[in-house]
Amino acid sequence: MAQATSKACSVPGCCCYSQKQPYLSFHSFPVDGEGRRRWVQAIRREEGPDFTIKTGSTYVCSRHFTLDDYVLGMNSPFSITIRRLRPDAVPSLSCWHEGGGTR
């Protein structure tokens, strides 16, 4: 059986991991260049030797997004509400902002 891997948030100063905070969601960086650039700038990181975005292993946790960044939908067979990031969402709640990342 495959072992579950833990996801870690890439925002500097954030110590969230999916195994420690299973109630959080972890979002992959956008694939498109402009969206990715906006996320990197928003979390105050710079791609280079110390930070590389790897598909399937580089994430930002839900603590850095507002409720307005999400679209709510219903999974009709079970009536479960599903939260998905809006395509234009950018992390805006950061550890260095007053009250940021405290949800």
From TrEMBL:
Q: Which domain of life is it from?
A: Eukaryota
Entries under Pfam families matching the protein: THAP
Sequence ranges assigned to domain THAP-type in this UniProt record: 1-94
Which GO MF terms are attached to this record?
A: DNA binding; zinc ion binding
* InterPro entries cross-referenced by the UniProt entry: THAP_domain_protein, THAP_Znf, THAP_Znf_sf
Keyword Zinc in the entry? The reply is yes
User: Could you tell me the keywords of this UniProt record?
Assistant: DNA-binding, Metal-binding, Zinc, Zinc-finger
What name does UniProt use for this protein? THAP-type domain-containing protein
